What we know:
The structure holds two protein chains of two kinds. Chain A is mainly alpha-helical. Chain A has helices spanning about 5-25, 30-55, 55-85. In chain A, α2 runs antiparallel to α3 (about 55-85). By secondary structure, chain B is mainly α. Chain B contains eight helices and no strands. In chain B, α1 (about 1-25) packs antiparallel against α2 (about 25-45) and α2 runs antiparallel to α3 (about 50-75). Chains A and B meet through α1, α2 and α3 of A and α1, α2, α3, α5 and α7 of B.
Amino acid sequence: xxxxxxxxxxxxxxxxxxxxxxxxxxxxxxxxxxxxxxxxxxxxxxxxxxxxxxxxxxxxxxxxxxxxxxxxxxxxxxxxxxxxxxxxxxxxxxxxxxxx
Amino acid sequence: xxxxxxxxxxxxxxxxxxxxxxxxxxxxxxxxxxxxxxxxxxxxxxxxxxxxxxxxxxxxxxxxxxxxxxxxxxxxxxxxxxxxxxxxxxxxxxxxxxxxxxxxxxxxxxxxxxxxxxxxxxxxxxxxxxxxxxxxxxxxxxxxxxxxxxxxxxxxxxxxxxxxxxxxxxxx
Lengths: 100, 172
């Protein structure tokens, strides 16, 4: 039997790789994919907890997280398309309209 | 022993693939590595006896969200993309922050022990009722209201995506 701690360590590692990608990449699409990576890291730990606690509520939570991730991807990519139409770039450095 | 071997393979491949996703220069390659990553995560869910979650991981993440990403990548100018640097100037700071938080969290997890009475959804129960039925029973009784809210979230996402991505028509 694989200990629960291993699953949690894997989940934390995937989550922090996502954080690293979100903090350091210039391309806004890759930043978005890093967010999806972080959501997947959380899902791994929720399913592992659900299995080891013998309680299906963790998997219900995963179901809702996947729903929200789909909605977030649709809205976020629409925002990226609108941005790209105005600036014709996908780099976050060049988006400084809100800077005072 | 065999279970640990399987877990080791999946953990190593998942970590390697997530590193590839965040470090590749070409976004199309990132999306492709992410496709492989999602299949490995789905296999890990099968390993944890969550068949339904593994199925929707493949259908929703790999089938819907990644295709959406691929479409948006196609709209961007890849020629320009490949010329500029992929990381921001202060990327060592980001690496330091995420590595430090990871070290803290892993140190905490190492001494974590699960002390809780096991719930009623044991493997035998799920095997008898089938996983999808057991999950559906909870979803449509105990979590009916959140389920309705989820449908509203999806509706708003559809309308919002159309409104945001629609080309503005000039009326002069």
